[in-house]
Each structure stands twice: as structure tokens, then as C-alpha cells.
Design goal:
Layout: H1 3-17, E1 82-87, H2 88-92, H3 95-99, H4 101-104, H5 107-118, E2 126-134, E3 139-146, H6 152-165, E4 173-177, E5 180-185, E6 188-194, E7 197-202, H7 203-213, H8 223-232, E8 238-242, E9 257-264, E10 268-275, H9 279-291, H10 293-302, H11 307-311, E11 314-318, E12 321-328, H12 330-347
Antiparallel strand pairs: 1-2, 1-8, 2-3, 3-7, 4-5, 5-6, 6-7, 8-9, 9-10, 10-12, 11-12
Length: 348
């Protein structure tokens, strides 16, 4: 999917998250198979250390939908090679986000939030956004979850205002198709799954999503992708898993999967792990990665991060896993934000 065609997907994914908690009175559409509660995947890695965020950092999602929505992972394409997600309550309640909210909610993001507010939406209703990518088919699916996201009146408000305030790139239509509310964009389709869940697929993924909604294909995310999700967990501000791992260099070319988790408090912590077929491969990869730590530190310094972040990098091997961890304080996180702000401004 090209960046241009991704605009409507991204616009809806962000705008649709800000549905007010009181909107959960919307009548659900037909469920997709067994409707399982949204959950956090329990970290489990019998062959090495787990990566789990501090329980104190997770802010439980409030509202009536958080216990009854379809499991987002059940809607991710079975052949996804990369899955990532944002646990919104954990992110927006982090001390850093609270302290720097005015600096973070800027530009296009601020404009979308303002548009959502005009449609009686609010960021407190956000729950999670899960992205699934199939690199073989170049297909993308986004699962957006927020209290009341299935409220058609609010979706119609977003549609009307987006068309006039953002432009044609964000335009979409809403219709009832086969008993389900369906949204149509230029190059993408979205479906209301339940009062809190919207699934958006680009043209390459739409047919498979339709089959899933029609009960023709089961939820089938499994294997290395699910094992990696089990290690990293989904109750952290940002997480990412990938399998196979093909672009990180020859030293980890035989890794079975990759898992990355980002925690944000006043500073940040990054936990990454690579799973290998056997302990011998993991030890060899760990030695190779440790030899590259100096280069990693140089790259971080060139990016503007303080020496302390580079010096915090730790590489360990345990069983079939190689773990890589790093952390930074609030000053480092603020410096990273400023650097990224400049980069994004230069690309727009």
C-alpha cells in the first residue's frame, strides 16, 4: 500500500479511537464467530527470560466495552509477518505524556483530535490500535478499539467533518452491507465489528477480512508470531513482533522471530528479544550482536541521544533467546521527541 493510499486508513484509525465512553449504548452488529474479551497476552517464554512491563505502569481500560470487545488479535490476518500495537491508556497516562501533552499533540495529530472532539469524541475513550502487515502480499489491516467506536452517528460526524476539514484524501462513505456497517475509502474498506471495534483493511487485505467476517476462515494467528507476542505482551505503550526476521543482518538471519516492547514512564525502556532454533545459534548471535554494540552507541549519539542511553545497552543470551535492553531518562526521551519532531517536519 502506497503512502498516499494509507492516508484514509491512518486518518480513520486515529480519529475513530477518540470515541466517548458513554457511546457504548450503540447496538452491536453481528459478531464475528465467538466474541472473546480483549486481553493482554500473558508473557511466557519457557526457554529464556520474559519481557514484561511493570504492572504499575498499566492503566486498566475503563468503560463497558473493555471486557466485551472482540480480541484484536483474532482480527489480524493469519499470514501477518509483522504485528504491532499501541496500548493507548498506558501511553497517555504515562507521566512523560501527561507532562508533555501539549508538545506531543501537535500538527496533524492535533487537528484530528480536534475534529474528533467536535464529534463528541474524547481521547479517554481510546483503548488500543493493532496493526497487521503481510509483507508477502503487501497487505495491511488495522484493528482500532475504543469505547463506542461502533456508534454510527459519530462515524457519520467524522465522515462529514473529515471531508471538509482534511480533504478528499480522508473522505469515506458509510453503508449497511450484508447486515454490517461498512466504510469505504479510496483503496481501503472498514467494518464495524462490535460497539468498540473497527477493522480497516487495504485493498490487498480486504478479501481475506471479508472471508473472516463471513466465518469462512478461522482466526489463525499462531506459530512464531504468537510466541513473540506472548513474550512481549500487549499491555505496554508500544509493542512489535515480526517473523520471519529478514532485514537485521546476517548475524541474526536464522532468528525465528523478533519481539520489541517500549515502556514509557518519566523516561523510557526498550526490551527486545530474538528467538533462535537452538541455544547454540542464540549464543553465536549474542556474541555477534555484542560486537556491534559500539556501532549501536555511535548511532544513538549521532541521533542526539546522550551517552547514558548507549551505555545502558545490555545483550544477554539465555536458552534460545537473545535479549537486548536499553533505557533513558526524561531528558533523553525529550531529546528524542525533539529530534523526531524536526525529522517529521523535514519530510512534510
Amino acid at each position: 500500500m502506497t503512502p498516499r493510499r494509507f492516508v484514509p486508513l491512518a486518518s480513520l484509525a486515529v480519529a475513530s479511537l477518540a470515541v466517548a465512553a458513554a457511546a457504548c449504548a450503540a447496538k452491536p452488529t453481528a459478531p464475528v464467530g465467538p466474541v472473546a474479551p480483549t486481553r493482554a497476552v500473558s508473557p511466557a517464554a519457557p526457554d529464556g527470560p520474559t519481557i514484561s512491563p511493570s504492572p504499575a505502569r498499566h492503566v486498566a481500560a475503563a468503560g463497558t466495552c473493555s471486557a466485551g470487545s472482540v480480541d484484536a488479535l483474532a482480527m489480524v490476518p493469519a499470514n501477518a509477518t509483522l504485528v504491532m500495537g499501541v496500548d493507548v491508556p498506558t501511553l497517555i497516562h504515562a507521566p512523560y505524556y501527561v507532562a508533555h501533552r501539549r508538545d506531543l499533540e501537535v500538527g496533524g495529530f492535533k487537528r484530528v483530535l480536534e475534529l474528533a472532539a467536535a464529534c463528541d469524541l474524547g481521547i479517554s475513550g481510546w483503548r488500543a490500535v493493532t496493526f497487521g502487515f503481510d509483507s508477502v502480499r503487501n497487505a495491511t489491516t488495522i484493528v482500532a478499539q475504543a469505547d463506542g467506536l461502533g456508534d454510527r452517528r459519530r462515524l457519520e460526524c467524522v465522515r462529514d467533518r473529515a471531508a471538509t476539514e482534511i480533504g478528499a484524501a480522508a473522505a469515506f462513505t458509510i453503508a449497511d452491507v450484508d447486515g454490517r456497517v461498512e466504510l469505504t475509502f479510496d483503496g481501503a474498506t472498514a467494518w464495524v465489528i462490535d460497539p468498540c471495534t473497527l477493522v480497516v483493511s487495504d485493498a490487498s487485505a480486504a478479501e481475506a477480512t471479508r472471508a473472516r467476517l463471513g466465518g469462512k476462515t478461522p482466526a489463525a494467528l499462531g506459530g512464531p508470531v504468537m510466541q513473540a507476542i506472548g513474550r512481549v505482551g500487549t499491555r505496554r505503550p508500544f509493542w512489535l513482533v515480526a517473523s520471519p526476521v529478514t532485514s537485521l543482518g546476517p548475524s541474526v538471519a536464522n532468528a525465528r522471530d523478533l519481539a520489541i516492547g517500549l515502556d514509557v514512564d518519566r523516561g523510557f525502556r526498550v526490551d527486545a528479544s530474538l528467538a533462535f532454533p537452538d541455544a547454540t545459534s542464540a549464543r553465536a548471535a549474542s556474541t555477534s550482536v555484542e560486537a556491534d554494540v559500539g556501532s549501536m552507541r555511535s548511532m544513538l549519539m549521532a541521533f542526539g541521544l546522550p551517552d547514558a542511553v548507549g551505555n545502558s545497552i545490555a545483550v544477554t543470551a539465555a536458552g534460545t533467546l537473545v535479549s537486548i535492553r536499553a533505557h533513558g531518562d526524561e531528558a533523553a526521551l525529550e531529546g528524542l521527541r525533539q529530534r523526531l519532531t524536526v525529522m517529521f517536519a523535514q519530510t512534510n
